[in-house]
């Protein structure tokens, strides 16, 4: 269990003590760590608000998920932790907040005048990933409207987990582009920070599953978008609608959300084909430039999620991350193919100032 960085926002990457434990024992150990964190956080008037479980075999591990709906937002995605374990977790703790469950998908986290909305595991059956993506957005947008929010003004971050991403990601792109245009998200306004990555849903018939974060009580003038034009191009240039990163200025704190970032240049070209070492270095370089636009650095980063296409690259990428960041920055490396086959690695993170 990694040590948190910030006193107000605390992130933990949870791992099992031994990969030789049975699957039941591994889940029990992760849940035990979450309970310990919850008990510890209450002493400092903090609350666990978000947990994402990374599972190695969704279909066979659903039986080990919590039988009762937790107070916090629980995201479950099929992305194997590449340390050989059955399950790992990302846990987010906030101080001085009140959590209210609004429905099966969404919790509201009241933080003074600001309200954070975490929505998880939104999915639908449907013939194609395009249809499913449109249905997911319809449901999500309806929920936002019920709370007096809009996709354009209030949604800050999304994650799309796509089964067989090489076949189904294009449908996600088309469906998202269509819904964004309908909701006023264009090149003349803005898009949303996002990760679109390979991953299995907890719904057997679902090709696409979405998590999302929105915020109310923050002026739109305090929501800013990151471009890093010296290193990255506009995603719209190759027909994809998302922002490279977003930062939000809340009362007393800035949170920076970096989208899934790969080895790409400012013409949209993949760099260092076939070289995972060089691609990892370029992805981190791109992230560093994005962070600098938000007046932050790697020192402000709370954790990294690292996605690999090829499990054989695990050891070398783990060694790169460890050599670069030591034990100071928790990270987890997951088997999750990126949306372009030539990208061997993608990295996302959150930073706080």
List the helices and strands and how they pair.
Elements: E1 9-14, H1 23-43, E2 46-55, H2 58-61, E3 73-78, E4 87-95, E5 98-101, E6 106-111, E7 114-122, H3 129-146, H4 151-154, E8 155-162, H5 165-182, E9 193-198, E10 208-216, E11 223-226, E12 245-250, E13 253-261, H6 276-293, E14 301-308, H7 314-325, E15 331-335, E16 345-352
Parallel strand pairs: 2-3, 8-9, 14-15
Antiparallel strand pairs: 1-4, 2-4, 5-6, 6-7, 7-10, 8-10, 11-12, 12-13, 13-16, 14-16
Helix pairs in contact: 3-5
Can you offer a commentary on this structure?
- By secondary structure, the chain is α+β, with helices and mostly antiparallel strands.
- 27% of the residues lie in helices and 32% in strands.
- The protein has helices spanning 23-43, 58-61, 129-146, 151-154, 165-182, 276-293, 314-325; strands at 9-14, 46-55, 73-78, 87-95, 98-101, 106-111, 114-122, 155-162, 193-198, 208-216, 223-226, 245-250, 253-261, 301-308, 331-335, 345-352.
- It has a six-stranded mixed β-sheet with strand order 5-6-7-10-8-9. Strands 11-12-13-16-14-15 form a six-stranded mixed β-sheet, covered by helices on one side. A four-stranded mixed β-sheet has the order 1-4-2-3, with helices on one face.
- A hairpin with a 2-residue loop joins strand 12 and strand 13.
- Helix 3 crosses helix 5 (165-182).
- The longest helix is centred in the first third of the chain and has 21 residues, at 23-43.
- The chain starts with 8 loop residues before the first strand and ends with a strand.
């Amino acid at each position: 269990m990694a040590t948190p960085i910030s006193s107000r926002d605390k992130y933990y990457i949870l791992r099992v003590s031994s990969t030789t434990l049975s699957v039941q024992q591994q889940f029990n150990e992760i849940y035990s760590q979450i309970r310990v964190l919850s008990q510890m956080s209450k002493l400092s008037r903090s609350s666990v608000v978000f947990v994402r479980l990374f599972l190695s075999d969704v279909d066979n591990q659903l039986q080990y998920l919590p039988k009762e709906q937790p107070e916090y937002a629980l995201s479950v995605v099929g992305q194997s932790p590449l340390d050989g374990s059955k399950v790992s977790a990302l846990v987010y703790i906030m101080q001085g907040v009140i959590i209210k469950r609004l429905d099966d998908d969404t919790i509201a986290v009241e933080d003074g005048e600001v309200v954070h909305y975490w929505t998880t595991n939104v999915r639908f059956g449907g013939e194609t990933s395009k249809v499913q993506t449109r249905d997911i957005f319809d449901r999500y947008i309806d929920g936002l409207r019920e709370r007096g929010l809009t996709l354009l003004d209030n949604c800050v971050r999304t994650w799309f987990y796509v089964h067989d991403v090489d076949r189904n990601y294009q449908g996600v792109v088309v469906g998202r582009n269509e819904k964004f245009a309908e909701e006023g998200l264009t090149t003349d306004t803005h898009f949303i920070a996002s990760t679109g990555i390979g991953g299995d849903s907890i719904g057997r018939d679902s090709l696409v599953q979405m998590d999302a974060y929105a915020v109310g009580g923050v002026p739109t003038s305090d929501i800013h978008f990151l471009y890093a034009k010296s290193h990255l191009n506009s995603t719209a240039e190759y027909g994809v609608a998302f922002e490279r990163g977003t930062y939000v200025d809340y009362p007393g704190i800035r949170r920076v959300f970096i989208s899934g970032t790969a080895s790409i240049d400012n013409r949209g070209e993949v760099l260092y084909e076939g070289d995972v070492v060089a691609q990892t270095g370029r992805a981190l370089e791109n992230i560093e430039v994005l962070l600098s636009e938000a007046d932050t650095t790697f020192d402000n980063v709370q954790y990294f999620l690292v996605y690999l296409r090829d499990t054989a690259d695990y050891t070398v990428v783990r060694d790169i991350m460890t050599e670069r960041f030591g034990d100071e920055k928790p990270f987890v490396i997951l088997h999750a193919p990126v949306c372009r086959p030539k990208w061997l690695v993608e990295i996302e993170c959150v930073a706080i100032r």
